[in-house]
Each structure stands twice: as structure tokens, then as C-alpha cells.
Write a structure and sequence with these properties.
Blueprint lengths: L1 H8 L5 E5 L2 H4 L14 H10 L4 E4 L1 H6 L1 H7 L3 E4 L20 H6 L4 E6 L6 H17 L4 E5 L4 H4 L6 H13 L7 H13 L4 E4 L5 H11 L3 E5 L7 H13 L4 E4 L1 H4 L4 H13 L2
Parallel strand pairs: 1-2, 1-8, 2-3, 3-4, 4-5, 5-6, 6-7, 7-8
Helix pairs in contact: 9-10, 10-11, 12-14
Bound molecules: 1,6-di-O-phosphono-beta-D-fructofuranose.
1,6-di-O-phosphono-beta-D-fructofuranose binds next to helix 2 and helix 13.
């Protein structure tokens, strides 16, 4: 039955998930670019008409719009932890706020949880994800891990781990941010797999070869790319998605790159063609 739920989120093995948890994570500033995006009915319309295979929400919206979400037929992915951007301590912590039981009551198809690997609170988040996986799987519910390496030891490169040494060498060669080096992202993806996630959501490493390492590290757990800030053009974003698919990712879980645009449905249509082939 977990397979059936996974198949709803990844029909034909591919996933195109719309993330709308940014209201808590970033605040209303994310809605300025396209003021309509403030309105949940607008988002649900994009998710439905755009043919998204999942919609990520915190419990507040999931509860307030329960009926509309269920009627839309778009699988709900309930985010079980979250935090605002206002508290800016170097080592982030995103506590669990909701349970698998809440997700079941809200009609969710899957649950999501963020781990900031490298934060001094990572042990707490690892434990919460492990507990969630145990409970979710005993209820036939898939788990998606948002695996984001983050914290002072990462950003200041002060981690004395061997992985950091490899990442620094990659950064010096490739010029990418340290938390987007293949060494660090593939480790984060691997942590998600080891803790039992069915899908991990990670940042792009910027190259097909680099992302292949991420996909290999996570296997057999599937990998989706996180969107990030809106790119200048649709084509730029589609190019990045094409690259991660070529590297073996099963799709994307994105928000701003869709609903901050003036014509989200146009990009959704192109994205669907690219990812799902329909
Ligand atoms: P975007 O596509 O808008 O980047 O959303 C993906 C996501 O993972 C959201 O689910 C989450 O709210 C946000 O990114 C977290 O962003 P940040 O990297 O700033 O913490």
C-alpha cells in the first residue's frame, strides 16, 4: 500500500511536486513577486491545472482548505516540521510540529521533514526523522526528507570531517557554495536514505556528474531537486531540471520557481512535458 501512495506522488516513477511551505520558512516576502501567490486558492489551482503530483503544506493550510484539497485530487504532502527565518542562530533547528497521526487525519498521502545536517542540532532532527519514518511506514505512508546541509560548521567550513576536506577541494575547483558541493549534498542525501526516507529532496550541485553522485549515494531512495530562488527565465529553470533528470533524479519539489512567475501554468505545462512526458 505504501507503493500505491508512492505511485500517486511519482506516477511512472517521476515526481513533480509543488512546495508551498515558504509562508512559514521565509515569510510573506516570498509572495511579493506575484501577489496572487498569497492566496491559497490560486496555489491549489496551479497544483490542479498544472498536473502536479503532490502539494507540500504545513498543517494550517491543510486543515483550513481540507475539503478543497481532497476534491482537487492532488496528493497532500504534510510537512511535519518547520521554522521561521526570523531566528538566525548559526546552527538551525526545525522542530517537529505535527505527527503522522495529524497527517492521516488531514488525508495526506505522504509526510515531509527537514534535516539540517551539520547543524549542532542535527542529532535531534535525525532522531525525529527516524521516529517519523517508523510511524509513517507502519501506517503505509511514504516519507520525504528535505536534506539540507546547514550550520556554522558547514558555512564557515570549520567541520573537521574528511567530507569537508573533499568539499573544500570541490569548491576550490568548481566555485559552488560549500553546501552545494557534491560531497556535502551526496552525504546529506545518504543520511536521508539511511534514516529511511523514500524520497530525498536536495539542492542542485550544478553539474550532471556531481548530481549523479548524489543520486548514487541516495539509492535506492529516490531524489528530487529543490527549486531555490526564481531563475530569470523559464528556459534556465527547465535546463537545470533537464540536467538533474539526466543525472537520475526523478523530478522536482519546487515552489518559488513556479508560483512567483507571472504565468505559472505555462511553466508547469513545460515542466510536466519534461518530467512526466505528458
Ligand atoms: P523553493 O522551490 O521555493 O526553493 O522551495 C523549496 C523549499 O525546500 C521549500 O519547501 C522550503 O520552504 C524552502 O525551499 C526552504 O528554503 P531555504 O533553503 O531558504 O531554507
Amino acid at each position: 500500500m505504501i507503493k500505491e501512495k508512492l505511485a500517486q506522488i511519482m506516477p511512472n516513477g517521476r515526481a513533480m511536486i509543488l512546495a508551498y511551505d515558504q509562508g512559514l520558512e521565509h515569510g510573506p516576502r516570498d509572495f511579493k513577486m506575484n501577489p496572487e501567490s498569497r492566496n491559497f486558492e490560486y496555489i491549489l489551482d496551479i497544483a490542479t491545472k498544472g498536473g502536479f503530483t503532490g502539494l507540500v503544506l504545513h498543517a494550517g493550510l491543510a486543515e483550513k482548505y481540507h475539503r478543497q484539497i481532497m476534491d482537487s485530487g492532488v496528493p497532500l504532502i504534510l510537512k511535519l516540521n518547520g521554522k521561521s527565518e526570523l531566528f538566525t542562530e548559526d546552527d538551525p533547528y526545525s522542530p517537529q510540529l505535527y505527527t503522522v497521526e495529524d497527517a492521516i487525519a488531514l488525508g495526506a498521502t505522504a509526510v515531509g521533514y527537514t534535516v539540517y545536517s551539520g547543524s549542532s542540532y542535527e542529532h535531534e532532527m535525525n532522531r525525529q526523522l527516524a521516529d517519523i519514518v517508523r510511524e509513517a511506514h507502519s501506517n503505509d505512508m511514504p516519507v520525504i526528507g528535505w536534506m539540507y546541509p546547514r550550520g556554522r560548521d558547514i558555512t564557515e567550513r570549520t567541520s573537521t570531517s574528511k567530507t569537508m576536506q573533499i568539499a573544500i577541494a570541490e569548491q576550490e575547483k568548481g566555485g559552488m557554495a560549500i553546501d552545494e558541493t557534491p560531497a556535502i549534498v551526496s552525504y546529506a542525501a545518504r543520511i536521508g536514505m539511511e534514516l529511511g526516507a523514500d524520497i530525498v529532496k536536495v539542492k542542485n550541485t550544478g553539474s550532471i556528474d556531481g548530481f549523479k553522485r548524489v543520486v548514487e549515494s541516495a539509492a535506492p531512495t529516490k531524489v528530487v531537486m529543490s527549486g531555490g530562488a526564481m531563475t530569470n527565465t523559464d528556459e534556465e529553470f527547465l535546463g537545470t531540471v533537464g540536467d538533474v533528470l539526466a543525472a537520475g533524479a526523478i523530478g522536482v519539489a519546487v515552489g518559488r520557481n513556479i508560483w512567483q512567475r507571472q504565468d505559472p501554468l505555462l511553466l508547469a505545462q513545460k515542466l510536466r512535458k519534461l518530467i512526466l512526458g505528458t
